[in-house]
Amino acid sequence: MYNNSSALLKKLIALIAGLIMSHTCLAQLTENMGWLFITHQQKLSKKLDLLADVQLRSANQFDYLTTLLLRTGVSYNFDKKHSAALGYAYKGDWEQNPDNTQYTLENRLFEQYIYQFKLSQIEVMLRARLEQRFVKEENVQFSQRARGFVSAQIPLIADADFNRGLYTGIQNEIFVNVQHQQRVNNNFFDQNRSMVSIGYRWSKHIDSELGYLFWYQPEKENAYRRNVIQLMFTTKF
Fold first, then answer.
1. Which of 19, 140, 143, 160 has the fewest CB neighbours in a 10 Å radius?
2. Handedness of CA 156, 161, 163, 169 (dihedral sign)
3. pLDDT of residue 13
4. Which pLDDT value is given to residue 138?
């Protein structure tokens, strides 16, 4: 299990590096932002969970609130390691211009599969998500995007079962456009997000984390390199 997971991680890192290097010819713009991310998982039954996320994002240099993301879904648990979910997300973006504020609405449907397991005390999660995106500026534009996510929570000072204690988190998520890429950034590669964090597990139900996230996103004319400070709260009941 460990060798297979290590080989998969090395292949993922090589793919990410290759995709990012292929876009270095674009003009590089750097931004600094802050995110607040609250995620909750509520057990409905032995097999079903309710999922809910709230995310607030600042504009460059923390000037104003630019993005509100609300996401919910229902997850079916095949067993303790495997689950699949269906859901919906609302994303609103507000961009302040000298004369007005421009609002962009995005509605999403998503399907996802999660595989989570332990390597000793380290908690590892692999997630695959497919999104159907309906972005409205003047007219609604439909596209589809796939996301691959891997994360690990590594106990630093914790009890034997990792129900309470200090930990560090590492994660990476890659996004690719699989349909109608010309309606978004005109690239198969959409973006990549890498994060390292320090967290505290208050109980088996509550985690809190403060992390640094590097967000690379090529657009049609520019490539954005965003430095993000993220405060995250995770609850499971």
1. 160
2. positive
3. 60
4. 85
Q: Could you give the 3-state DSSP secondary structure of residue 61?
A: helix
Sign of CA dihedral 233, 79, 42, 35: positive
Cα dihedral 213, 217, 223, 224 sign: negative
Stated pTM of the model:
0.86
- Residue 128 CA to residue 149 CA, distance in Å, equals 6
Q: Say which residue, 4 or 89, is predicted with more confidence.
A: 89
Span between the terminal Cα atoms of the chain, in Å: 29
Contacts 24+ apart (CB under 8 A), 201-205: 201/158, 201/162, 201/163, 201/164, 201/165, 201/166, 201/167, 202/164, 203/163, 203/164, 204/163, 204/164, 204/236, 205/235, 205/236, 205/237
